[in-house]
């Protein structure tokens, strides 16, 4: 469809809109006159009826025209030039192409379905358009008889020439098989190698706040927080890669009643805490002690409450004690973030104290708070449905709910967030649903904001029970990472890698495997499900595991090394040597690589990273098939390289580049030798 078509649609839409306006005026006139000329009421009614019918038809027509305009303009924006290393979304490109053809064929069909699927068998092309069956049904509902086959033929004849499509064939009951052109894929793969990177698909830039990790001061940082940290980090990486402006926030639990106990206990135990650093390295037992006192000792309890009040008023002495306590935890958290290469800014609940005071007044003045046995609560959508938020407790204190209301307002209004992502265990999903409803009711967020609660299931031990140490304690995260390191080294030694790698290389490989496998095990499971934490499983070198993928990657990179071709030489070779995709396994691998932007788009929709892991596994399998069937280098009996297939080395390199990008999004660190 051309620019003139677009203009034509605009014109037609304009005319229809004007006609509707005119009809509206006529109807009004008729109705007004009907009120005075009651003797002719019947005639007036039928005229109004007719005009209203006409109006409905025109509105329908207008909707169709508007859609055509929309399809046309998005097509004009969406198809990028093919000589860049920005991979195009082939799904989008084909959807646009067929949507256009379907609209041209059936302009009166409202919302025609456009379904593009990957073909299961190369005999039936690379992709398929499966819309003909449903369109045939829609037509027959309107009394129009057309077999799916006829529908498919008509659509096919209206498909414009495309730089992506070689040919179309109709098969079976009315499938349109789409055979892709190879040329644009060859160009894309070449430019990947030339620039050594893959640019993200073009996306509208958003300001995104990702609230993740968020452990609680003085309490255990448990595997749930580890999941939030790993998933959150990966979501941030993906959004940043797509070009969004991401604010990574650690909403640590650093405020509330428990700090009263902790501070009161600190004052008793270490009265010189302001001049000497007290040895509360084991903050957890310190917390337990203070809790026990709080429950038994009324004098202590009263003093603890006093401390909370003072803390919330920012009393300098109390703030000092509080900071001291927070620092102890903070150091622990930081160690973990460094080991896992996680970047995050701490902005805990305490940050919102002033904002909480403001939001409470705000909600009160809007009449959104309700008395409930001394508390002040707020309902989500409508009163008495679901669980309300407690905004003020009966003792006058604020709650987790209050701080989240204050935080969402601050993020929208001061951080200008368009999109907020919360990563916590699925157990908190009711909390976040209520938060979204309350924030809507309070007009803090509107339709233009996107809010996601990225929930996840619990981590289980190999006994399928909640993940615990043998003695039943919570597993310390640092112990868990240490154990990972130990096991990773054992795996390397079992494979006798110490005989091949230098000490330095061995260490790098150990970390890459240990942290990589912990992250990957988490990310590769559907986050909505619980998952069993098992070092044995995650360190397996077969199947969809980090170890398998990391080995696969090093193997790809080692091909060029064996052929004695450096990466620089590959870059140069890509300038002059064309890539060929004649072998079916070459073409199969190339098509898997081409899918990368579609995989990313799918993840952005529901923030499930296991799609990316499945994709990595698919790349690894397609590469293995390619490598087993297509010689990249040939050696003689003396194991000397006698022939190098440059095109295939380039395909391998393009694979490595996409693989590397995926690893980066998952937080995996591939190594060139392991
Ligand atoms: N500290 C909380 C917890 O450990 C998680 C906080 C999540 N973020 C939020 N804005 N509520 O469960």
The CATH topology of the largest domain comes to Isoleucyl-tRNA Synthetase, Domain 1
Strand order of the largest sheet: 7-6-5-11-12
Class from secondary-structure proportions? alpha/beta
Give me the CATH superfamily of the largest domain: Isoleucyl-tRNA Synthetase, Domain 1
Task: Report what the structure shows.
The chain has five domains: 3-77; 90-180, Arginyl tRNA synthetase N-terminal domain (Gyrase A, domain 2, 2-Layer Sandwich); 212-254 and 256-347, Rossmann fold (3-Layer(aba) Sandwich); 364-456, no CATH class; 477-666, Orthogonal Bundle (Isoleucyl-tRNA Synthetase, Domain 1). It contains 23 helices and 16 strands. The chain has helices at 3-36, 41-78, 90-105, 131-141, 148-157, 183-195, 223-241, 257-269, 283-296, 298-312, 316-340, 353-365, 400-413, 429-441, 477-494, 503-524, 535-538, 546-562, 567-576, 584-594, 596-606, 610-629, 646-666, and strands spanning 116-118, 127-129, 165-171, 175-180, 207-211, 245-250, 345-346, 370-372, 375-378, 389-392, 419-425, 450-456, 459-460, 531-532, 633-635, 641-644. The protein has a five-stranded parallel β-sheet, sandwiched between helices. A four-stranded antiparallel β-sheet has the order 1-2-4-3, covered by helices on one side. Strand 15 (633-635) and strand 16 form a beta hairpin. Helix 3 crosses helix 5 (148-157), helix 6 runs antiparallel to helix 19 and helix 18 (546-562) packs parallel to helix 22. It is flat. Bound molecules: arginine. Residues 549-674 form the DALR anticodon binding domain. It is found in: Cytoplasm, Cytosol.
């Amino acid at each position: 469809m051309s620019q003139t078509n677009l203009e034509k649609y605009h014109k037609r839409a304009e005319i229809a809109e004007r006609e509707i306006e005119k009809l509206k005026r006529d109807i009004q006139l008729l109705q007004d006159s009907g009120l005075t000329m009651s003797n002719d009421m019947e005639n007036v009614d039928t005229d109004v009826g007719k005009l209203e019918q006409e109006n409905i038809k025109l509105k329908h027509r207008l909707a169709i025209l508007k859609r055509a305009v929309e399809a046309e303009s998005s097509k004009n924006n969406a198809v990028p030039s093919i000589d860049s290393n920005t991979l195009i979304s082939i799904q989008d490109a084909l959807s646009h192409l067929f949507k256009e053809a379907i609209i041209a064929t059936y302009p009166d069909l409202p919302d025609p379905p456009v379904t593009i699927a990957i073909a299961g068998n190369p005999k039936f092309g690379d992709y398929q358009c499966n819309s003909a069956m449903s369109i045939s049904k829609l037509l027959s509902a309107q009394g129009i008889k057309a077999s799916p086959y006829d529908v498919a033929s008509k659509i096919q004849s209206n498909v414009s020439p495309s730089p992506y499509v070689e040919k179309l064939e109709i098969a079976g009951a009315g499938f349109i098989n789409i055979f892709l052109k190879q040329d644009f894929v060859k160009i894309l793969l070449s430019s990947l190698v030339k620039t050594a990177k893959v640019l993200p698909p073009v996306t509208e830039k958003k300001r995104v706040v990702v609230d993740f990790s968020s452990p609680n001061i003085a309490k255990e940082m448990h595997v749930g927080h580890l999941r939030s940290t790993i998933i959150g980090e990966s979501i941030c990486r993906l959004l940043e890669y797509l070009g969004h402006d991401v604010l990574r926030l650690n909403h640590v639990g650093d405020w509330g009643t428990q700090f009263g106990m902790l501070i009161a206990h600190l004052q008793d135990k270490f009265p010189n805490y302001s001049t000497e650093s007290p040895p509360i390295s084991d903050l957890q037992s310190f917390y337990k002690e203070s809790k026990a006192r709080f429950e038994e000792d009324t004098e202590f309890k009263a003093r603890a409450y006093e401390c909370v009040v003072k803390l919330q008023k920012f009393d300098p002495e109390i703030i000092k004690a509080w900071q001291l306590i927070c620092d102890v935890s903070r150091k622990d958290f930081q160690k973990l973030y460094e080991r896992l290469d996680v970047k995050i800014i701490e902005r805990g609940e305490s940050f919102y104290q002033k904002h909480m005071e403001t939001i409470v007044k705000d909600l009160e003045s809007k009449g959104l708070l309700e008395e409930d046995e001394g508390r002040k609560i707020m309902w989500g959508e409508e009163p008495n449905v679901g669980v309300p938020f407690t905004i003020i407790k009966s003792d006058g204190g604020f709650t987790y709910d209050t701080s989240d209301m204050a935080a969402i307002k601050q993020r929208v209004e001061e951080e200008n967030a368009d999109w907020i992502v919360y990563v916590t265990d699925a157990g908190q999903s009711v909390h976040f649903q209520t938060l979204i409803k309350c924030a809507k009711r309070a007009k803090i967020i509107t339709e233009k904001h996107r809010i996601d609660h990225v929930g996840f299931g619990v981590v289980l031990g190999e006994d399928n029970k909640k993940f615990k140490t043998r003695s039943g304690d919570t597993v310390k995260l640092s112990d868990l990472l240490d154990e990972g390191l130990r096991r990773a080294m054992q795996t390397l030694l079992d494979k006798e890698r110490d005989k091949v790698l230098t000490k330095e290389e061995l260490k790098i490989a150990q970390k890459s495997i240990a942290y990589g496998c912990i992250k990957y095990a988490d990310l590769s499971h559907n986050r909505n499900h619980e998952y069993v934490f098992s070092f044995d499983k995650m360190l397996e070198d077969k199947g969809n595991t980090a170890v398998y993928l990391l080995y696969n990657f090093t193997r790809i990179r080692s091909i060029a090394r064996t052929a004695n071709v450096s990466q620089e030489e590959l870059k140069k070779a890509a300038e002059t040597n064309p890539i060929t995709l004649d072998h079916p396994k070459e073409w199969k691998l190339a098509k898997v690589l081409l899918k990368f932007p579609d995989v990313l788009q799918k993840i952005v929709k529901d923030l499930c990273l296991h799609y990316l892991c499945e994709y990595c596994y698919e790349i690894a399998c397609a590469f293995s098939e390619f490598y087993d069937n297509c010689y990249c280098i040939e050696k003689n009996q003396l194991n000397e390289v006698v022939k190098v297939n440059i095109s295939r080395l380039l395909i391998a390199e393009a694979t490595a580049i996409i693989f590397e990008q995926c690893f980066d999004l998952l937080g995996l660190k591939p190594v060139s030798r392991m």
